[in-house]
Amino acid sequence: MGRIWTRFLQSGAVVAVFVLGLGIALADEAAVKQPKVEISPSAYDFGTVKEGEKATATFKIKNTGDADLIIYDAKPSCGCTVANLSTKDLKPGETATLEAVYNSANASGQVHKNVAVSTNDPKSQTINLPITGTVQSLPAPDIMLSSFNITNLQLAAGGKDTRSVKITNTGQLDLEVQEITTSPGMSVTLDGRVIAGAQTVKMELMLKPGESKEAELTVTPKAVSGNFQEFLTIRSNSKHRPIVTFMAQGIVQG
Questions:
Q1: Residue 191: left (phi > 0), alpha (psi -120 to 50), or beta?
Q2: Which of 30, 41, 174, 235 is 20 to 30 A from 147, comparing alpha carbons?
Q3: Of 127, 9, 154, 129, which Cα lies nearest the Cα of 59?
Q4: Closest C-alpha to 52, from 138, 139, 131
Q5: How far apart are CA 201 and CA 220, in angstroms?
Q6: Domains (ranges, CATH) in the chain?
Q7: φ, ψ (nearest 5 deg) of residue 63
Q8: Which residues pair with 71 in a beta bridge?
Q9: Distance between CA atoms of residues 126 and 95, nearest Å
Q10: Portion of the chain with pLDDT greater than 70, in percent
Q11: Mean pLDDT, residues 206-235 taken together
Q12: Strand partners, 37
């Protein structure tokens, strides 16, 4: 009976020690101090700006934890946006300012950008901050072709393909067609001028907003057999497409 009682007391002591150790471990875990990041607002809409203007999105980054918060990086999704941080190290309770400056040069329509903020908060290591808005385009000339390519042409050796392509000014200001370049197997007739293959010709063709001109393109591949690729390049004062290319591809069946 004495041995049994002794073993019982020993087992109870082991259990007590285990429970005590577990309690200490849990207490130590609860006592671990950690940073906690909070960012407001969680997204930013800068509204409408005119093309070329800059828009600034401002965010407040606060450390609501009980350990130092480190902001490793604030990385924009493209080169048109620059992110500036007031500080990267925040004591508990401190706040930093993040300014993301978007440059709307050469942009138009809806804008969807993003800034990724990386921190040492174990529960929020990366936070994505969406930035949206609208860019109102300034009046400008623009060029559009009724077709930009021909594919799967099948021609006999020495054969040719001729078709019309419409050049249209889809902008709000006068379009100036300034230069045309042809590959060896591409010739074009435009505005009364005939431009042979393998040439670069200066042009002074003016198109009013909404106006079009027909260009007659003739593809005469120089290849005796096999695949071919010929092109026509148009340079203009179009703001968004200063260079457009018409491409003809196919095979010469020798």
A1: left
A2: 174
A3: 129
A4: 138
A5: 19
A6: 37-136 (2.60.40.10), 143-253 (2.60.40.10)
A7: -95, 105
A8: 119
A9: 18
A10: 87
A11: 96
A12: 63
> CA–CA distance from 20 to each of 10, 12, 150 (Å)?
15, 12, 81
41 or 14, which is more confident?
41
Q: What is the mean pLDDT of residues 146-170?
A: 95
The rounded distance, in Å, linking the Cα atoms of 227 and 251 is 4
pLDDT at 11: 57
| Cβ neighbours for 103, distance < 8 A, ≥ 6 positions apart | 54, 80, 81, 82
102 band by pLDDT with thresholds 50, 70 and 90? very high
User: How much is the pTM?
Assistant: 0.64
- DSSP string of 88-132? SEE-TT-EEEEEEEEE-TT--EEEEEEEEEEES-TT-SEEEEEEE
Q: For residues 231 and 242, is the Cβ–Cβ distance under 8 A? A: no
Question: How far from 173 is each of 49, 143, 197, 233, CA to CA, in Å?
Answer: 21, 11, 31, 21
Q: Are 212 and 181 in contact (CB under 8 A)?
A: no
